[in-house]
Design goal:
- This protein is α+β, with helices and mostly antiparallel strands.
- It folds into 2 domains: about 10-95, no CATH class; about 100-130, no CATH class.
- The protein has helices at about 45, 80-95, 100, 110-125, 125-130; strands spanning about 10, 20-25, 35, 50-55, 60, 70-75.
- The strands form 3 sheets. The chain has a two-stranded antiparallel sheet with strand order 1-4. A two-stranded antiparallel sheet has the order 2-3.
- Strand 5 (about 60) and strand 6 form a beta hairpin.
- The longest helix is centred in the last third of the chain and has 15 residues, at about 110-125.
- The protein is globular and about 45 Å long.
Length: about 140
């Protein structure tokens, strides 16, 4: 499959401009997102806007501090929406990690201690969550 070199612009709700455009704790429901450029609560129409222009059917997100990609797929044939983006990022990061991610050579004991702390903070005393193990979000 050839590489798509089309220049795309993120939706204005997602564009960084001196302040972060959104706030969202990905440990929580994606519907708790806050769009800083809106002077009103968001609505369903806002979430159904395409994440970029021109629209795409899939996106691959990368961050240099994560050992995996986050793949986003359009749920409709027209393109990835803002809702698709946040919902699938959340779902992806809520997946349990594998031992190979926790014991990778790129992490040391201090890194693993930070992950363990994030896991404990996220789970609290919720035995159901604890039993599911460390997730990518941690």
């Amino acid at each position: 499959m050839p590489f798509d070199e089309t220049r795309r612009d993120l939706h204005k709700f997602l564009q960084y401009n001196l302040i972060a455009p959104v706030s969202l704790d990905l440990r929580n429901d994606p519907m708790s997102v806050r769009f800083h450029h809106l002077n009103r609560p968001f609505n369903q129409y806002d979430l159904l806007q395409f994440a970029c222009d021109p629209p795409v059917n899939s996106m691959r997100l990368y961050h240099d501090k994560l050992p995996w990609y986050i793949d986003i797929q359009a749920r409709n044939p027209s393109g990835v929406t803002i809702y698709d983006l946040f919902d699938q990022m959340h779902d992806s990061l809520m997946e349990p990690i594998r031992d190979k991610h926790y014991y990778t050579d790129e992490m040391d004991d201090e890194d693993r201690a930070k992950i363990a702390w994030a896991f404990k903070e996220r789970c609290g005393n919720n035995q159901n969550e604890i039993s599911k193990g460390i997730r990518k979000i941690d």
